[in-house]
Design a protein that fits this description.
A hairpin with a 6-residue loop joins strand 21 (251-260) and strand 22. Helices cover 0% and strands 47% of the residues. The chain is built from no helices and 27 strands. Strands 3, 4, 5, 7, 8 and 9 form a 6-stranded antiparallel sheet that branches. Strands 12, 13, 14, 16, 17 and 18 form a 6-stranded antiparallel sheet that branches. Strands 21, 22, 23, 25, 26 and 27 form a 6-stranded antiparallel sheet that branches.
Amino acid sequence: DQDLATANEVSFTTDPELLVDIPSGASDNVTDTSITVTGETVDLGGASSTDAFFQYRIKTGENEPNNPWRSTDPVTLQSTETYQQTITGLQTETDFEIKAVAVASDGDNAESSIITVPTQPDIVVVTDTATRVGGTSADLNATVGSLAGISNADAFFEVKEVAAADFQRTTDKQTISSSGSFSDSIGNLDPETVHEYRAVVEAPSGNTGFGVSTIFETIKAADLEVSPATEVTATSAGLNGTINTIPQAQSAEGLFEFKEDAQSSFTETSVVRTVERSDSGTFNSVSFDTEIRSLSVGTVHQFRPVAKVSNGDRITGPTQSFETTNLITVRTDSVEN
């Protein structure tokens, strides 16, 4: 006979499994060169922490015969939670395979299932030639060839003097929803200076297209001179100015703006005189004047001449001051016969 022996029963518990995942819809933020991905550590598998990151490569069979996985920098997580990273420097209009990876402190590792995400196509924008270039202003122009399937984007221009290292100014953003041209004006430029500008189209996702920079040179601006006010009374004054020069092949409207010394903004008069210059002829100084009325009594006022040039420049001359006089009250006494 064979004896049958039974061992004592032993119970044990296995550690939970380390799990990592990419939730559905976690790669919506995609541009032409980047993909932002959200991962989630579902279970740390009993470890105290885990290093979480993503691995990515061009989808097998596209562009490269061998596609080694490249890794993002790991983030250390102490609990089950989500993490987000942006993968940059990617090729445009290319399918990428992405997976979440976790390496726990106890040595376990886990991977999520692979998702495929295509990068967007390029936004195509061309910086066109500047027009109506004046001494202090210019019209900037661009043509959008493709919005890369985007329904709307912000379009604007970046401007700098050529000698500057970085772009110094931007125009206001305007919303565009299709290919085609867009323009904007810029002022307060330095006369007789070479400027550089480029068009920029920026999608809500961050996908951005830049036009190649082009240059333009501002011309000599109109030159104005102011003369002292004349025939100043308690409520009126004569304003006097001179247009010394305007750019060739341009016309200009001469007027004045004035204000009380304590006021912050000027008031324009109507156009006093219009002058023109041919594309080759010289220009002789032209004086212009006007009278303003309904002024405050005994008050200091400021005024200056203004030239609105047909190229878009608005040039202001030097400022002069004058003070209206006080009213003289005449008292008439009755005379008894």
